[in-house]
Automatic annotation (TrEMBL):
Keywords: Electron transport, Membrane, Mitochondrion, Mitochondrion inner membrane, Respiratory chain, Transmembrane, Transmembrane helix, Transport. It is a single-pass membrane protein. The gene is LOC117438979. It comes from Melopsittacus undulatus (Budgerigar). One of its GO terms (cellular component) is mitochondrial inner membrane. This is Uncharacterized protein. InterPro entries: NDUC2.
Length: 157
């Protein structure tokens, strides 16, 4: 649990283009560093923590998918519940929060759909690799005629 929390702290504290001091030469001089930073790693984003690099080769899911719509609705409903619990007008108060919660739910749903498609693709890849390595266990069924499949018909009178 602690590793997950530390990872999330690193994700949300990472600036998309590195440290401001690393880009600003005068800030570099003020903090005592005159040489540029050498071995800087790429910034970690939440998507990179959540999805491995293999998932980039998959086609993206549609923007409007079942999971996104459901979690967007849950986010909107959470904003409505918040209004109701705080004794505010349910639909008319905090429209900006309703939009924000819906957007966050939609975004989380989109990345969950990406993760789901990655997991299914990974299982499919492993299954097809197993079938390729063991063809004797997965022979094609020999063709049978329809007369061999059904029993002979004897009408009951």
């Amino acid at each position: 649990m602690g590793g997950v929390i530390l990872g999330l702290i690193q994700v949300f504290s990472a600036h998309p283009r590195g440290s401001v001091r690393a880009r600003n030469p005068s800030a570099r001089l003020r903090c005592g560093r005159t040489a540029p930073l050498q071995h800087r790693s790429a910034p970690v984003t939440l998507a990179m923590v959540f999805l491995p690099d293999e998932a980039r080769s998959l086609p993206p899911p549609p923007i409007a998918n079942r999971i996104s719509a459901w979690l967007g609705f849950c986010g909107w409903f959470a904003a409505l519940l918040d209004n109701g619990f705080n004794q505010r007008p349910v639909l008319r108060a905090g429209v900006h929060r309703q939009i924000l919660f819906t957007t966050v739910g939609w975004f989380v749903g989109y990345y969950l759909a990406k993760r789901t498609e990655y997991m299914y693709a990974k299982v499919d890849r492993e299954l097809l690799e197993y079938v390729r390595q063991h063809p004797e266990d997965f022979r094609g069924a020999e063709k049978r005629r329809i007369g061999e499949v059904f029993e002979e018909f004897h009408p009951v009178r």
